[in-house]
């Protein structure tokens, strides 16, 4: 029973896929002849067919699961808007056609734009995507969504001062902390001269960072699942690693401060840093391990779980974010930035992720990914780069 129904659905899928391709050709021809109304009608017909294909593939998946004796789960409906769904489909066609089908795709500097809402910080594998990698998405017998590698990485960018750059370079004004005070004025007397706000201009120039995801021809031709999602997750992990590296390089340029004891740490937080700053700790794994062993005078650990902290951990009222040792140096590096990330780092974001096809010298082609941004030190007083050194034996570590 199921086999007959599955055969019927597969036949319908093949038939409608052929019609979608035919309509795409007809639309291009009508546009060349400037028959816009006819082209719009064909496009609506094509979109309706694509919606039917989505439903047919979902139905086929349900039958395949039932045939294998698996529990039939409720099909999760996409939360994407119709416009997002349309763009995802267009981007999928761009990838599968190796850049030939460009209809409906936005381009920047000759590269297809992957919108920010498609990106996901949870990453797929970090090597090339070949047929075996997307085998679970190829309808040989049963179709599942690919499982994602469990990996948690702190995204430092979202805690910086982000602005959308519309040009390749420029200046960004940072308002300095006000030091002037208001004056008392007697009734009917002239107002005193007011202090003007002071600004510090930060020069920035967007840099282009590139990487690549190799897709084999078999994967592109055989896969019936959304390759955009797989590519976007992989591309976003590469971008996350890149932005964290760039931000960490800025944090390392802040004034150095040594630390050997808890008292040293408290002095940096309470005295050295202006109390007006919204302080947090960006710690290497090794520095975090030091923090995890700190105790108060009653022997209670100072590092606490917190449901209100973005990182889930607090120390002396500050959120604690953990990064790899190698972002601040070598393995075993016990360093941390302590201060206000939002005031410390300016992040000029030009474009999130773009993709383009590049020939691959081994097999298939590279889907090259790129992101464009710049990171600069904004407020030089907003933090300190702290390095921990174990106290001399016999010294106080409390």
TrEMBL record:
Organism whose genome encodes this protein: Enterococcus gallinarum
Domain of life, source organism: Bacteria
UniProt key word Coiled coil: yes
Chief subcellular location: virion
Compartment(s) where it occurs, according to its Swiss-Prot or TrEMBL record: Virion
Location of the Phage capsid-like C-terminal domain: 135-367
Coiled coil residues, start to end: 13-73
UniProt key word Coiled coil: yes
Protein name (database record): Phage major capsid protein
Keyword set, alphabetical order: Coiled coil
């Amino acid at each position: 029973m199921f086999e007959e129904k599955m055969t019927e659905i597969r036949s319908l899928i093949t038939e409608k896929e052929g019609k979608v391709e035919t309509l795409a050709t007809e639309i291009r021809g009508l546009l060349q002849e400037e028959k816009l109304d006819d082209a719009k009608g064909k496009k609506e017909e094509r979109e309706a067919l694509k919606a039917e294909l989505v439903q047919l593939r979902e139905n086929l998946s349900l039958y395949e699961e039932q045939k294998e004796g698996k529990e039939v789960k409720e099909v999760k409906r996409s939360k994407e808007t119709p416009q997002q769904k349309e763009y995802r489909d267009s981007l999928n066609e761009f990838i599968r056609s190796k850049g030939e089908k460009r209809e409906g795709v936005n381009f920047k500097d000759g590269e297809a734009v992957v919108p920010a809402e498609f990106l996901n910080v949870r990453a797929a594998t970090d090597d090339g995507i070949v047929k075996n990698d997307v085998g679970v998405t190829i309808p040989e017998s049963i179709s599942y969504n690919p499982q994602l590698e469990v990996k948690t990485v702190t995204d430092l960018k979202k805690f910086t001062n982000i602005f959308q750059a519309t040009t390749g370079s420029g200046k960004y004004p940072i308002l300095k902390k006000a030091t002037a005070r208001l004056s008392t004025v007697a009734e009917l007397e002239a107002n005193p001269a007011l202090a003007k706000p002071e600004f510090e201009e930060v020069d920035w120039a967007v840099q282009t960072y590139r990487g690549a995801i190799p897709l084999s021809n078999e994967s592109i031709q055989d896969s019936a699942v959304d390759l955009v999602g797989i590519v976007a997750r992989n591309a976003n992990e590469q971008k996350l690693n890149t932005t964290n590296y760039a931000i960490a390089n800025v944090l390392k340029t802040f004034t150095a401060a040594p630390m050997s004891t808890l008292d040293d740490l408290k002095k940096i937080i309470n005295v050295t840093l202006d109390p007006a700053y919204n302080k947090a700790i960006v710690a290497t794994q090794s520095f975090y391990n030091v923090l995890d062993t700190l105790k108060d005078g009653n022997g209670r650990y100072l590092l606490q779980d917190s449901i209100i902290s973005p990182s889930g951990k607090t120390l002396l009222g500050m959120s604690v974010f953990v990064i790899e040792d190698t972002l601040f140096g070598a393995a075993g590096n016990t360093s941390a930035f302590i201060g206000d990330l939002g005031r410390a780092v300016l992040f000029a974001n030009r474009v999130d992720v773009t993709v383009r096809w590049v020939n691959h010298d081994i097999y298939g082609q590279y889907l090259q990914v790129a992101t464009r941004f710049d990171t600069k030190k904004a407020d030089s007083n907003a933090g300190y780069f702290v390095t921990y050194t174990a106290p001399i034996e016999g010294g106080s570590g409390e």
